[in-house]
Structure formats: C-alpha cells, structure tokens
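User: Sequence for HNH endonuclease below. Tokens please.
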Amino acid sequence: MTPFPRAVSRVIATAAAATLAAVLGWAAPAAADHVLPPNIPSTSAAQTQLNSLTVAAKGPQTGYDRSLFPHWNVVDSPCTARQVVLLRDGHDVVTNDDCQPTSGSWYSAFDDSWVYDQPSDISVDHQVPLSEAWKTGAADWTTSQRADFANDVTSSQLWLATPSSNGSKGDKDPSQWMPTNTTVHCDYVKSWINVKYVYDLTVTSTEKSSIQGTIDSAC
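Assistant: Structure tokens for HNH endonuclease:
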C-alpha cells in the first residue's frame, strides 16, 4: 500500500512566525485569535472524504513502538516540527537562536485553555495518534513514511493541546473521546477525517458513525 497518494508537499517555513506566514500563506494571528491548525477542510469536502474512507476493523497493536514514528525531527533547520507548530499557532512567540520558543502564548482548543510564557506547558498533539495510525494502516509503512506522518506541519495533523487534554485523549478515536470544548467538535472531526484521508488510513464502522453524527449535529 502506498500511504500518501494525496499528501500535500512539505513546504516548511523558516524560524520566524512572519516567515511562516510569508512562505506558507498563514496569516499572522491577531492577539485575540484562537488559532487552529491549517488546512482543515470545509464540511462538504470532509463529508466527501469521509464517504471515501475504507471501513475496516483496527489491526493489532503488536509491534507498535513510538520510536517507529521518528517525531519532532528538524523540518527546516534549525526548527523541529514541534517548534514550527509553536511558532505557527502561537501568539507573540519569541525564540532563541536554536528556534526554541522562550515566551509567547498558546491556545488549546481541546479544553478552551491558554498557556502563557511557558512553552514546556503546552503539548503538540498528533491528531490521529501514532498508535491509532499503526492499527489502521501505518504498520505497513516504511520508517521514512511514518516520520513524514509524525512531523507533518502542513496538514492539520498537529494541534496545540494542554498536557491534561492530550493525556485524556491518549490514542482514542472520536467514537471514544471528544474535546471537552464542544465549540471545536466540528473542526476536530473534519481534521480527523482529512488526516485519515490524506494518509489513506482506515476507519471502523463505529468510528465512522460517530464522526458522521458529529458532522450532522455540530457542523
């Protein structure tokens, strides 16, 4: 299986938020904006993508290890994927010469919470968790393909999240866990659909039904 037939090109921005905006077309956020990841599809596009996903039972967890998905790699020297997301979706972010944010503010849409000035207090969550991907197709990928997935800063695969909300989510799919912030439910499932679509991952019948219910009620 070729897992990336629809993946977008990984054009990565340089170390400053202004350069991110210039290179990738992301607008610099106003101070009061709540920034979500880029490229969340429209409701109609997400519906079409959901309809096209392969429905199958999840595979086994056997053989899974996070190290099989090399993550927080350098994606544009010296910036790692985590650092790019902190710049991309943060506000007034200041970095050192190694691209590490030293101050700023970050919004966790999962629980409608802000983190101020302490980048270590904000997580970068894989929207489709690594172990979920393993069980729905990624077990057959190469390590290089799994690294692309784990460091994808151009799709909506990487979200800012408080450690508590990130921990609560774990490796659960939307039939098992949804953000406590109900206002983000529509964008959350549209993002989930799109990541699974881009990477040709499967969904279970329960997962698909739950996502469809959220689209119908929240979008």
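DSSP finds eight helices and seven strands in the chain.
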